[in-house]
Design brief:
By secondary structure, the chain is of the alpha+beta class. Helix content is 52%, strand content 13%. α1 (7-34) runs parallel beside α3 and α8 runs antiparallel to α10 (368-381). Bound molecules: flavin-adenine dinucleotide (FAD).
Length: 382
């Protein structure tokens, strides 16, 4: 058992740290406030190959292991979690194609998705169904060589830049059990009848858009059916969400670590009653708890990532990592706000952004209560 990163992992971590220091940290506060799209950062991530993290080398990607994947998301989120969102659902879309796409689909889309020339996201959630994905109402009816798609999706991150976008639909709305009638269609941006509507207003997670989508009898070619078979869509989506929890857990560790970094710095320089506040035991206790919890969350994420690399299903492991790390991110951001006093509440410091960003990780890719049910199911089965 070795709790240290390999030399390759350390080198990747150092590269990401330098990228964040140089290109993300200096602009994060201002760009997040103004809502400016981080085009220059996206361009640099393309050059670094980050859009191809989960694309096999034979299709133009760099096919990293899950621990490396976690390192990338932690380091970027330490600078600005919203940037990690640009890579998150894109990488899951590429994983869907790599795992389940037909050879023709892989050849058609993966090389451009790996380079970032084309980008993607993942469209599951609807106005009436999020946790209960089998309750979606978007229907794709077969008509000759196409599917006619009708329905609405909400909260779809990266939607304005996604082409193609995997969309979960019902190809057989009457099927029982319901998941047997669910499929994924790879929808291209130019599809007639498909449109990206309003941006959802958000507390945090700025820098990337989350949008409403409308399918108004959109005509999607039948060869865009993922894997070429109907009825596997829910299982395909759940399998990549399981892996995706590594990225959400790692983002949470990055946010929690950023809250700790800022707090340690502040505790040394802020004076009250004639001494640095770091000399008060009340502040020390908070810092010690934060540091302990952040490190525990990080090790849990790396452990879950290592299990996922082992090739076996790791629902409970990635669920535990995401559940624990996201709760720690929320606690650390709040502790940092307390340590910073009034300045923690100020838009001129980073703490309020960390505080706004942290709760998303408790909601996305399975709410924490849904994950608790998955973990419990696993325990009871054993
Ligand atoms: C900023 C942002 C970005 C997002 N990006 C995407 C994206 O790119 N693609 C995408 O498809 N979706 C995206 N989502 C949607 C997200 O995945 C859903 O919000 C999430 O899955 C929860 O679904 P819901 O909002 O419908 O809540 P609901 O499912 O309605 O849940 C409401 C509450 O009920 C609880 N609950 C529901 N069922 C159970 C149960 N069986 N047992 C116990 N508790 C239960 C939940 O835990 C929660 O507390 C995004 C959301 C946000 C906020």
């Amino acid at each position: 058992m070795d709790f240290e990163l390999t030399s390759e992992h350390k080198a990747l971590q150092a590269t990401l740290r330098e990228f964040v220091r140089r290109s993300i940290a200096p602009v994060a506060r201002e760009w997040e406030r103004s809502g400016r799209y981080p085009t220059e950062i996206v361009d640099e991530m393309k050059t670094m190959g980050l859009f191809g993290m989960l694309v096999p080398e034979e299709h133009g990607g760099i096919g990293v292991d899950a621990v490396s994947y976690a390192i990338v998301f932690e380091e970027i989120s330490r600078g600005w979690m919203g940037i990690a969102g640009i890579l998150g659902s894109h990488s899951l879309s590429t994983l869907l194609l790599a795992r389940y796409g037909t050879e023709a689909q892989k050849r058609r889309w993966l090389p451009d998705l790996a380079s970032g020339a084309r980008r993607s996201g993942i469209a599951l959630t609807e106005p009436g169904a999020g946790s209960d994905l089998q309750g979606i109402a978007t229907v794709a009816r077969r008509d000759g060589d196409a599917y006619i798609v009708r329905g609405t999706k909400v909260w779809i991150t990266n939607a304005r830049h996604a082409d193609p976008l995997p969309v979960l639909v019902k190809t057989d709305p009457a099927a029982q059990p319901r998941h047997r009638g669910m499929s994924i269609l790879m929808v291209e941006a130019s599809t007639p009848g498909y449109s990206v509507g309003r941006d959802m207003g958000k507390l945090g997670y700025k820098g990337t858009e989350s949008c409403e989508l409308t399918f108004d009898d959109a005509r999607v070619p039948a060869d865009a059916l993922l894997g070429g078979v109907e009825g596997s869509g829910l299982q395909q989506a759940l399998s990549v969400l399981e892996f995706g929890r590594i990225n959400i857990g790692a983002r949470a560790v990055g946010v929690a670590q950023a809250a700790l970094d800022r707090s340690v710095e502040y505790a040394k320089q802020r004076h009250a009653f004639g001494k640095p506040i770091g000399e008060f035991q009340a502040i020390q206790l908070k810092l010690a708890d934060m540091a302990t919890e952040v490190q525990a969350a990080r090790l849990l994420v790396w452990w879950a990532a290592a299990r996922a690399d082992g090739g076996q299903r790791a629902d409970a492991e990635t669920g535990m990592a995401k559940l624990f790390a996201s709760e720690i991110a929320i606690r650390s951001a709040l502790a940092a706000m307390r340590i910073h006093g009034g300045y923690g509440y100020s838009t001129e410091f980073d703490i309020e952004r960390l505080y706004r960003d942290a709760p998303l990780m408790a909601i996305g890719e399975g709410t924490n209560d849904i994950l608790r049910t998955i973990i419990a199911r696993d325990l009871l089965r054993e």
